[in-house]
User: Fold this.
Amino acid sequence: MKYLDEYRDGEIAARIVDKMRRTLTRPWVLMEVCGGQTHSIVKNGIDYLLPAGVELVHGPGCPVCVTPLEMIDKAHAIARLPNVIFCSFGDMLRVPGSEGDLFTIKSLGGDVRVVYSPLECLKIARANPKKQVVFFAIGFETTAPANAMLAWRAREESLNNLSLLVSQVLVPPALEAILEAPGNRVQGFLGPGHVCAVMGYREYDPISARYHVPIVITGFEPLDILQGTLMTVRQLESGRATVENQYSRILDREGNRAAQQLISTVFEVCDRKWRGIGTIPLSGYHLRGEFSRHDAEKLFDVAGIAPREPEICISGQILRGLKKPHDCPAFGTLCTPQRPLGATMVSAEGACAAYYTYGRHLSPHGSDPMHPVIRETEIIHANR
Assistant:
């Protein structure tokens, strides 16, 4: 495809890997932050293609995966109410709570609707003035502008039957939590390209300096990831630690100032719980006080919900880069996309779902040396 094939060229991929191999003098562990990057890595066999001294571990960059079970249960409690129209993106409908999922609630008569934009909820609220319309506003900084616009429009139009159940989280505090956690193995990051398209990457400079860790903001195509990995390895090998931008065709240092202004108008920073990780201080957004009439947590009695995660699920360790999906005793057996134990197996960006989708559960330790994309000059052509 025009403008896309150039980022999937097998010969260029092989040359980048060869440069990496010649650069390496010792092993390094890198984390790709975004779940979209994880899927690209697993789908294209990039982790197989890398030299033996470079290990990629998977970060918390899937908004569905890091939404805590407590928030999932709050959403389900609201969706069960008879006077509620509960709206969500489709990837949240199969995420298991303590008792079923949103599909189950819908099958039992709950009015659960899939929307493709938060602003669709405005039309639904106008058409159903006697119903309470609730939008499940999850995500990283990438989704924050559209979710903020929904709250702002609801207030401007005085749509008092429209509210948001907010579970917005922020990437930089999560990176700090990973670096400070006991047993951390991460020595460099492939930063989240889409998040930085909104927020820029100035806020990563203090993290890189404080922890002396390279952060290379990276795109999502195979050559993006390989180039970002090479840039990170070169920093590590030379003893440097700075923020670099591999994804320069899409983003710059400042990001989208208009989107940032809208976010700061509607949201303010707060502590947030992360699934499998716990509470990270100042790692999320909630609605400012002037938008409280559109805050679903304040409108509905859900404050007392405090569930427990399934003990066998190790998604928290996977999200922190401590383990990989095939290290889980339930992976591919008790936990599958059809019967998931946790969100990392449900989400389109979840690491467990990626490993399962691309057959990592079919070979020992998730590794198959005969995987077709290992052949360097054919890694990308398998996608065409």
